[in-house]
Every structure is written in C-alpha cells, then in structure tokens.
Write a structure and sequence with these properties.
Helix content is 32%, strand content 23%. The protein contains 9 helices and 14 strands. The strands form 3 sheets. The chain has a 10-stranded mixed sheet with strand order 2-3-6-1-7-8-9-13-12-11. Strands 4-5 form a two-stranded antiparallel sheet. It has a two-stranded antiparallel ribbon with strand order 10-14. α1 packs across α9 and α5 packs across α6. It is globular, with a radius of gyration of 21 Å. The structure holds adenosine-5'-diphosphate (ADP) and 6-O-phosphono-alpha-D-glucopyranose (G6P). 6-O-phosphono-alpha-D-glucopyranose binds next to α2.
C-alpha cells in the first residue's frame, strides 16, 4: 500500500549564525545520504537551494521580508524577526511536508533583493537551514529533528578573521565591529533556539593549551537530547557513565597538545542530555578508526563508515577535529532517523488493519 503518509517529507532544521559552517555540514550530510547536492538545474544562478536524489536544502534567508535596502531603511538586521516572513515560512514548509509543491521566494545574496520564486517539489528529506529554523513555534513543530551549531565567540572571531581578512581583505577592526553589531540581535533571536535543538554541536577554544586564543585547536561538544523518538544518542564505552579518555598511545599518533575525549550525562536547558566531547585534533585521519571502534550507537551501516566519510572529505574545514567528526556522526543519526520513520510508517497501516 502506498498512502500519502508513506511519502510524507521528513523535515530537518539546522540553525546557526552565518559563516558558522552550515554549508560544510550540509555537504557532509548529503554525502552520507549518498549523493552530493547541487543547485537546481536551469534555474536562477543565485538560488540558495541545493538538491540531491533524496534531499533538498533550502536556505531560510529566502524568507526575508525586507530586502537589503528595506533593512537599512528600517534599521533592522537580517537576524531580526521583523525582517523575516514566518507566516510564509510556516505555510510553505507545511505544504512541502504534506506533499505539495510551493513557489518559494529567492533572496539574492549578490544584489540584496528578492528575486522571482522557484518551484520546490516535496523531497524525501527537506533541510531548512539558516538563522531561524526553530524561532517560530509553528515551524518548530513541523521539524522531525533539529540541530544547532553553537560556535563560541572566540572561535567565530577566529574563523571570520581567516575568511574575511585573509580571503576578502577586510580589516581586523571592521571584522570586530561587524561581529559586535550583530551580537545584540544574535543573543536575542538566534542563540535562544538552541534550547529546542535535539542535537547541539558546541565549538569552543581548547583546554589543552593554557590561554590559547588562536582558535586553531578546538574543543567540540556533541550535546544529544535524551528521549527523542528515533534518535539514540552515541556513547563512549558505557552508556550513562561519566568517562574521560586520552586515546593517545600505541594505536593513535598524537602530537602536542594531544586529544582528549569525555562523555557523560548532563542537563541542558532543563533537558536530560548525553554529551560527547573531543578536545584536540587528529594527526592521521586513518587512525580515526581506532576512536570510532570505541563508540557505540553510531548508526553506521558497516565497520569504519565514519572514518571512511571523514577520509572522503578530508579537504572540508574541520576534518581533523571534533567539528567534522561530530557533523559526520549527526549525519549518520539523521539517516537512521529517516529510515526508522519510514519503516514505522510502512508498519503503521498494517497494525491498524489488524486492530
Ligand atoms: P555557513 O554556510 O554557515 O555560512 P560555511 O560552511 O560556508 O558556513 O563556512 C564558512 C567558513 O567558516 C569556511 O569557509 C571556513 O573558513 C570556516 N569554517 C567552517 N567550518 C569550519 C570548521 N569546522 N573548522 C574551521 N573553519 C571552519
Ligand atoms: C543574509 C545572512 C545574514 C547577513 C545578511 C547580510 O541574510 O543570512 O547573516 O547578515 O545576509 O545583511 P545585510 O543587511 O548586511 O545585507
């Protein structure tokens, strides 16, 4: 039997400030699903959408209700809810989720204007990525799974310097100023969304080097909510225990400052969570298999799948540390969630018929 419910689109929300690694994460995710996502063929070259066989990624900037000039005139930033059309976002995500195509607007990042809309057909998996996927409670309730990329100020600053100073020729002062200008709205409208996320990837400066402020070596925490249907948190050695592990030695090459893993239960915004932490970086990516073999509930399809994914994309930012490692793991958990939801829908009508 093939009811409409069997084909319902699964919706994933990915929230983060811009320049915090959302596109990199999306590339890792779609790779786990077996195909790179590409811009729609024959459409607007400035479209923000990415499409693969299974997955469509839409960028929530497309729901800006105020264009660049409008924002300037009204004195609001893109992070301000008043610059975004949540009614339309809700209606369109809901339509796609129930199998109906929509004409989604396009925010043109080059011109700062709203372009004519593009047709979005319901995919198997819809990812909505951007500043506000969990801001509006109606949109939030449509999400089957949500992720928040939480990049600490120190690290955000280091990444911005690397990109905007080294690659775009901005000055240190102007980078500082632009981060400061965004901060009040970021704190008011973006950051609070992390309390709703099923998984948070927190990126902090290392604790392995005293007073490090380079932002090269990172301490990354994967915060996984307990009790989420179809999502079984990953664990290290023994589920629910508190563990500290330095894997450097015979099986793993570690140069200064080494690698340290931690794992254990915690409370996060009043929710029970499990936290897996990795501080430091890998010298040799193929040795990741040693760490992978000590983790459980990874939702891999074969031994070494995490390591294989990491090796495949070793050129992506964060491949030698916890950012790439945990993004890959979350990708596998989403694939598992998708498969479980799909399986439960096939079973449900059979159960109903028996009753
Ligand atoms: P977004 O889509 O959120 O704007 P990107 O994935 O395009 O972010 O990343 C923006 C920039 O941030 C990258 O070009 C890189 O300089 C830096 N960056 C992102 N993720 C990482 C990472 N895990 N480690 C180091 N730098 C990163
Ligand atoms: C997009 C991004 C924002 C960014 C904005 C630029 O909407 O998601 O993070 O701030 O573009 O806005 P501006 O008003 O400077 O053009």
């Amino acid at each position: 039997t093939c009811s409409a419910a069997d084909q319902q689109t699964i919706v994933i929300g990915l929230a983060a400030d811009s320049g915090c690694g959302k596109s990199t994460f999306m590339r890792r995710l779609t790779s786990v699903f077996g195909g790179a996502a590409e811009p729609p063929k024959g459409g607007n070259p400035d479209s923000n959408t990415l499409i693969s066989d299974t997955t469509t990624v839409i960028c929530l900037d497309d729901y800006h209700s105020l264009d660049r000039t409008g924002r300037k005139e009204k004195g609001v930033t893109a992070l301000d809810p008043r610059a975004n059309d949540f009614d339309l976002m809700y209606e369109q995500v809901k339509a796609i989720k129930s199998g109906v195509s929509v004409d989604k607007p396009i925010y043109n990042h080059v011109t700062g204007l709203l372009d004519p809309p593009e047709l979005i057909k319901p995919p198997k998996i819809l990812v909505i990525e951007g500043l506000h996927p969990m801001y509006d409670s109606r949109v939030r309730d449509l999400l089957d799974f949500s992720i928040y990329l939480d990049i600490s100020n120190e690290v955000k600053f280091a990444w911005k310097i690397q990109r905007d100073m080294a690659e775009r020729g901005h000055s240190l002062e102007s980078i500082k100023a632009s981060i400061e200008a965004r901060k009040p709205d970021f704190d008011a409208y973006i950051d609070p969304q992390k309390q709703y996320a099923d998984a948070v990837i927190e990126v902090l400066p290392t604790k392995l080097i005293p007073d490090d402020n380079e932002g090269k070596v990172l301490r990354v925490r994967l915060i996984m909510k307990e009790g989420v249907e179809f999502f079984n948190p990953v664990y290290l050695f023994d589920q629910g225990s508190t563990i500290s592990w330095i894997p450097c030695g015979r099986k793993l090459t570690c140069s200064y400052p080494g690698i340290k893993f931690s794992y254990g239960p915690e409370t996060y915004y009043g929710h029970e969570v499990s936290v897996l932490e990795m501080d430091g970086q890998f010298d040799r990516l193929d040795e990741l298999i040693y760490v992978e073999s000590h983790l459980s509930n990874l939702s891999t399809k074969f031994y070494g799948e995490v390591t294989q994914q990491m090796l495949k994309h070793s050129d992506f930012p964060g491949s030698n540390n916890g950012t790439g490692f945990f993004q890959t793991i979350v990708g596998l958990k989403i694939r598992d969630l998708y498969e479980q939801i799909t399986a439960s829908r096939v079973k449900a009508p059979v159960e109903a018929a028996k009753a």
